[in-house]
Amino acid sequence: MNSTELFEQIRLKRSFLCVGLDTDLNRIPEFLLSKEDPIFEFNKAIIDATADFTVAYKPNLAFYELHGAAGWTSLQKTVKYIRTNHPNIFTIADAKRGDITNTSRMYARTFFNHLDFDAITLSPYMGHDTVAPFLTFEGKWVVVLSLTSNDSFEDFQMVKSSETGKHLYEEVLSKSVNWGNENNMMYVVGATRAEKLTSVRDIVPDHFLLIPGVGQQGGNLADVAKYGMNKKCGLLVNSSRGILYTDQSMRFASAARDKAMALQNEMEILLKNAGLI
Amino acid sequence: MNSTELFEQIRLKRSFLCVGLDTDLNRIPEFLLSKEDPIFEFNKAIIDATADFTVAYKPNLAFYELHGAAGWTSLQKTVKYIRTNHPNIFTIADAKRGDITNTSRMYARTFFNHLDFDAITLSPYMGHDTVAPFLTFEGKWVVVLSLTSNDSFEDFQMVKSSETGKHLYEEVLSKSVNWGNENNMMYVVGATRAEKLTSVRDIVPDHFLLIPGVGQQGGNLADVAKYGMNKKCGLLVNSSRGILYTDQSMRFASAARDKAMALQNEMEILLKNAGLI
């Protein structure tokens, strides 16, 4: 999928919602725990309930690795389920990997060939080497961390370069922007830093941004759209806990659908206001 | 295991060698491929052949994840095998994780409780949040990336702060040094940057350093010792490909033993010269 095709899906669904599949056995409805693969059962129900309002799914690897081999099987089944039943929905492995070339090549094969994700999140700390091997895969994407939504983002991302006057998160954008292009690279920019989207857009006007932190972490959707939207929308806004865990009964999927629809409704208005639909 | 106990193992074995278990099915002897779990069979033979000369083993997660659920099983069996048969050898999950608190907590449970590793490598890009959850586990360690051995380390690690005049890799050291202590934190510093170990030691004189890049990547062991050794040795020097893949015959393990012994011999001389044994 390229950026034009992704934008087409956004226009079709009137939504730029990404649902984070942070599936936690301690938070899913209890009646699912007796199933053979409760994580997959939960994901399947959430996916079918939210697919109408969603352009991307983003499983967070930590929640699957916690269950070892069984967790990897749940993850694999989940990606395959999306591919088979909702083939136009973009899939992101939230793995935040980053290693030397030789190792990055292994991760790329794992996430792009074996698991068949469209995209993977990467940490830029080790530089170009760690990203380049992923960019050789036709039709696949990397999502590089720039400005994250957590409290301690300032520790290093706000270090200002004495040479360029840019903060590290801006250095990441400006150094990496030519490693790939707007059809194979996105950036993570936290919704809790919406006002900084202006400086982000100065450097990467055309790239898609993956925006975590709306909802539970306090980010505001209207601000994200105001400062971050571009002519192809250019935004995937993620919500995880705010969609997944609002109901513990047999109605959990329908409750998730309501939450996803509410976000889609907000997004539709923002897309209309921007003249994109 | 604390730093004093680790130093005791170094004195006992006259070695500060860490063997990287980057087990690649394309490079292990062909006759192993017919076994039920070739990765585990290879690791077991390598571990038994090198344990006399080794104080740490470091499986690189990418090589296991490539094989999905089966790979996780091989990894789990490998760590358990080390724990059971060589209980005084330190184990490091080379995973380079780094995520928000909620997610880091999941990774910590995975690598420390379920897989029972002593340590995990972490990327510092997202700051204190990403490291803190790992430091609440008694007797466990984090190994934070500072200065890596790959070609593109300069992209971001050499960005100089306009506020402190320090490079980012030094900022990582000086900001994080008080997050934990010398009994639960180490740093990755590539052997290919041995001359920079002086500036590293100015900031973290007492911490252990995990040094990749000796051998295949061109780092020099004597330089590493010269600039990096402290009063508890303070070094774990990793070798992976240079030990694992020197022989493709039935004698592969014995060839690996010879390579490990050769490195141990060099290390023994360096430890003697430093008056540590």
Question: What is the secondary structure topology, with strand pairs?
Answer:
Two copies of one chain form a homodimer.
Chain A: H1 3-13, E1 17-21, H2 38-50, E2 56-59, H3 61-65, H4 68-85, E3 90-97, H5 101-114, E4 119-122, H6 128-131, E5 141-147, H7 154-157, H8 168-176, E6 185-189, H9 197-203, E7 208-211, H10 221-228, E8 235-239, H11 241-244, H12 252-273
Parallel strand pairs in A: 1-2, 1-8, 2-3, 3-4, 4-5, 5-6, 6-7, 7-8
Helix pairs in contact in A: 2-4, 2-12
Short description:
The first copy, chain A, contains 12 helices and 8 strands. The first copy, chain A, has helices at residues 3-13, 38-50, 61-65, 68-85, 101-114, 128-131, 154-157, 168-176, 197-203, 221-228, 241-244, 252-273; strands at residues 17-21, 56-59, 90-97, 119-122, 141-147, 185-189, 208-211, 235-239.
- The CATH homologous superfamily of chain A: Aldolase class I
Oligomer, anyone?
Answer: homodimer
**SS-derived structural category of chain A:** alpha/beta
How many individual domains of chain A?
A: 1
> How many DSSP helices of chain A?
12
Computed Rg of chain A: 18 Å
Helix content of chain A: 40-55%
Largest sheet of chain A: 8 strands, parallel, barrel
CATH architecture identity of chain A? Alpha-Beta Barrel
Low-confidence stretches of chain A: none
Query: What do the pLDDT scores of chain A average to?
Result: 96
* Shape, per Cα inertia axes of chain A: globular
Order of helices and strands of chain A: HEHEHHEHEHEHHEHEHEHH
